[in-house]
Write a structure and sequence with these properties.
about 25% strand, single chain, alpha/beta, 2 domains, Rossmann fold, 7-stranded mixed sheet, 6-stranded parallel sheet
């Protein structure tokens, strides 16, 4: 996969994503830095690059992810960026498949911060000039990083796995905001796609969802979203689709946080399978869940942010 002009880079693994960082280094034939981590008795973090000579006159590619332990992961990434530059790296690029605070991307109430802006600007001011992330919740907000950004969609890889369990599939986004992910995967696999429209009865106040155009009767439905957190949206959408005549439901999401009783909600809604990308450090061992390795696609994106390195 490696091309001339891109050899002067070193993969620097974060604590949350060491295994995937090694896969990316192998795919690109880049050297892999060794990192020593520890935590002081007061909870403060410590990192050290054990072979700093690798970074001299090279581009450091820090590969980390920010869940779980979002705050610690942010600080660790900043510390690694500083350590790389002090070791002689000429540039720092970031590979952060899951970006913390991405859902706090605007003012919802007066007096709030825009937390995602803080994270992006802080990473940039730490010396990073490029960023690769996976299926950002608000792609348009990534411009605040003010460097080269690659936002990867992997919904096609998730649907490819889901097709093993589907004979007559339709790809559905649970809302209009997720439509781009659904469309991207559906077009790749030549499938029909749609999104659910939310309506509220003016008399009873009851909320319901309806596919905008596509008939779902007798179809195997693949529901596509970016993040499953508490599972409420996915469970509600899945129940509706089955009530409307869908044969089965497979859920495909990029970032599977699955907090609290999310998995129970989704099971109870009648979902057959949950397909997740391996963008997080956490991994649940459940029969209903399958993980798709997106390391190769991330490696390809690393080359895009390194195009001008020579």
């Amino acid at each position: 996969m490696n091309r001339s002009g891109l050899m002067n880079a070193v993969i620097v693994p974060g604590r949350n994503y060491t295994e995937q960082a090694a896969k990316i280094a192998s795919a690109l034939n880049y050297q892999l830095a060794r990192i020593h981590w520890k935590e002081f008795p007061d909870g403060e973090q410590y990192v050290r690059i054990e072979n700093p000579e690798l970074l001299s006159s090279k581009t450091a590619v820090i590969v980390n992810t920010m869940y779980p332990g979002q705050d610690k992961s942010i600080v660790e990434t900043l510390m690694l960026a500083d350590a790389c530059l002090r070791a002689g790296a000429v540039d720092v690029k970031l590979v952060l498949p899951y970006l913390a605070y991405s859902r706090q991307d605007k003012l919802f109430l007066p007096g709030e911060p825009v937390s995602f802006s803080i994270v992006l600007k802080t990473l940039r001011h730490a010396g990073a000039t490029g960023l690769v992330t996976v299926d950002a919740h608000s792609p348009e907000k990534l411009a605040e990083f003010q460097g080269k950004v690659v936002n990867l969609l992997v919904s096609d890889l998730l649907v490819q796995e889901a097709l093993k369990y589907s004979s007559n599939p339709v790809v559905i986004a649970p809302d209009k905001g997720a439509l781009k992910r659904a469309e991207y995967a559906a077009v790749k696999h030549r499938l029909r796609f749609d999104y659910l429209v939310k309506t509220r009865d003016r008399v009873t106040g009851q909320v319901s969802y309806q596919p905008r155009e596509v008939s779902i009767s007798g179809k195997d439905i693949v529901v596509i979203d970016d993040i499953i957190s508490t599972g409420g949206t996915i469970a509600e959408a899945s129940k509706l689709l089955l009530e409307k005549g869908a044969s089965s439901i497979i859920v495909a999401a990029t970032h599977g946080l699955l907090l609290g009783n999310a998995l129970d909600k989704i099971r109870s809604a009648g979902v057959r399978k949950i397909i997740l990308a391996n963008t997080l450090a956490s991994r649940l061992q459940e029969d209903i869940i399958e993980y798709v390795d997106v390391s190769v696609r991330i490696a390809e994106a690393v080359e895009k942010v390194l195009e001008k390195v020579g």
